[in-house]
Design brief:
The chain is built from four helices and two strands. With 89 residues, it is mostly helical. A two-stranded antiparallel ribbon has the order 1-2. The protein is elongated and about 50 Å long.
Length: 89
């Protein structure tokens, strides 16, 4: 991937942004998320979480499965109040 590839669309973060954070010594995906806001937008990392983990794994020589998954807050999409109220009289 090229350095200007967008990793997190919600927060407008590029691969260069993520790599710069890793070069500063941050190798924990949760730390990188807190520093860059990668995965904190409306989608809660539905796309960028995996890209972030792959980049950290590549930089550290670890397997993606060995890395700590970042936290997220469901629901990942808005819910209409009408949907919640259905069935309530």
């Amino acid at each position: 991937m090229e350095e200007n590839t967008i990793i997190c669309r919600c927060e407008d973060l590029t691969l260069a942004d993520i790599r710069a954070t890793i070069k500063k010594g941050f190798h924990n995906p949760q730390e990188i998320k807190r520093l860059t806001r990668c995965g904190m937008g409306p989608c809660q990392g539905s796309t960028c979480r995996e890209l972030l983990l792959k980049e950290v794994a590549s930089a550290t020589g670890k397997n993606v499965g060995d890395l700590e998954m970042t936290t997220f807050r469901p629901p990942n999409k808005p819910i209409k109040v009408k949907s919640i109220m259905m069935g309530v009289e």
